[in-house]
Amino acid sequence: MSVTDRIWAVLDAGVTRSTRGLAQRASRRGFLARLGTALVAAGTMPLLPVMREAHAAEAAGGIAELGDPQSCDYWRYCAFGGYLCSCCGGSHTRCPPGTELSPVTWVGTCQNPADGKHYLISYNDCCGKSVCGRCGCHRTEGDKPIYYPSKSNDILWCFGTESHSYHCTVALVLSETTAV
Amino acid sequence: MHAVGFRSLALATLAGALLLPAQAVRSAELQPELGGVAEMPVPNDHWFMTLGFLGGGSIFDGDTGEMQGRVHVSQYSPGVTIDQRRGKVYVPGAYYSRGTYGERTDLVVVNDLKTLAPLKEIEIPTKLAGVFSKAVINPIGDRLLGVYNMTPAMSVSIVNVETERFVGEISTAGCALVYPLSGLRFMQICGDGTVQVIELDRNGRETGRTRSRVFFDPETDPVFDMALARPDGYLLVSFEGLVYDVRVTNGIEIDAPWSLLTDADVEDKWRVGGSRPFAYNAANDLLLTLVHQGGPDTHEEPGTEIWAFDLGNRLRGYRLALEEPVNTIAISLDSDPLLYVPGGGRVRVHTARTGRWLRTIEETGPYASAIQVFGEVK
């Protein structure tokens, strides 16, 4: 992977951004399917919003959870950019085997629908393998340009790792916070 | 079916072999073709290069739609610098000895613009920023290059293209990218709502830096990280559609902004947005922007229309509805400009002053592509 893989996949394929986005991009899904790559999975997403119990047994601090960590609509992903590690052999908090968790991250502030509270979310890239290519997701709540890096998801965030090859991204709850 | 086809082919080959002596006699004067390798013609202002997912570096002529060749780009090459005067293309990149792991080497690869072959590798610090912006690499003066780094500490590597050597690194804490200015200067956009101008000497060493006043709020209405070159500075556009004219002469002057969106546009929820949503042609003072209908935080939503503005009077000239939403647009830099609209693996070419469709170039690369144009700001 590379930054171009990542950025193009998530920007052009904002496929998973929302069901609204899916409707807008319906004409492109045929093209993506022909490629038989990463974003095929996105094309199989349900067109209606679906809420189900999260698989998030490891939720930080026992916070209430509602939503599917394999769906871009999951609440923690409000400022996410990249591929969901939960679709790549890891989870929304754990990198897939053989990759390395980047200690340097960008953050977002997301509201948990299960308790109505806002949480500071750390988005850590998992690095050292080629791009996962499954469950591309790009959302921009509170996202900032690249000159404001701490809140920018358009940056390859594999810093402090052996390799800065991008694989996927996890979303960790850091703390409760106030709405921005 | 397959077996029959194969047998037919074998028979045809045999028949051809049997006929060969007679044909050879009849064609005694014909010299066998040897093949060869083409050289790329001299580019003009309507040429462009694609950059995007799964590679890029393909060069096309916007007037004919014909592909002209391909430059090597790495997976970490969001932009290149095309030096038509020297006949070179400078490509920044990061490489691992085992593909995605192993020893990392960051380079500026010097490519020949005629043969499109790499001529020289200039090693730079392994800090090349992983951001998708053309302004990762740009010329500074006529013999220096600036390459933007992020580790996440921000800095700029300076390369001398005459000596083909890395000459030093300049810390640019809080300020990103490399936007060239006249002389040996470049501009950056900073996270505190300012721009910064850094001046170098001929050897690439910093001789001074200037910071503008704070003119935008990065929390409430940041400017896009895409500056549009004018002869005396840059245009910056905010998420809410405010246009800032940043003029850099002896100092940094920034007028009060004006909005691309009328009250009626805002009422209808039109917003600017995309990954590279703007294109500007200085020769015509023509600004093009992708727009879509959406709410706050949709600044990277693909555009459903392109709006064209005459900056002389700040009025919109036309609206161009798009067949499918797109993330990027580009415009050639000459006085009779072409508008490029990449998306869906093809590039649509329009006359920029009218929006009229001219042609569609197919198979320019999978997914959407960004466009980098040839030529210089007129």
Structural overview:
- The complex is a heterodimer of chains A (180) and B (378).
- Chain A has 180 residues and is α+β, with helices and mostly antiparallel strands.
- In chain A, 17% of the residues lie in helices and 20% in strands.
- Chain A has 4 helices and 6 strands, in the order ααααββββββ.
- In chain A, strands 2, 3, 4 and 6 form a 4-stranded antiparallel beta sheet that branches. A two-stranded antiparallel ribbon of chain A has the order 1-5.
- Chain A is globular.
- The N and C termini of chain A lie far apart (33 Å).
- In chain B, 8% of the residues lie in helices and 46% in strands.
- Chain B starts with a helix and ends in a 5-residue tail after the last strand.
- With 378 residues, chain B is mainly beta.
- The longest helix of chain B is centred in the first third of the chain and has 25 residues, at 2-26.
- In chain B, strands 16, 17, 18, 19 and 20 form a 5-stranded antiparallel beta sheet that branches. In chain B, strands 21, 22, 23, 24 and 25 form a 5-stranded antiparallel beta sheet that branches. A 4-stranded antiparallel beta sheet of chain B has the order 3-2-1-30, with no helix packed on it.
- At the A-B interface, α1 and α3 of A face β12 and β13 of B.
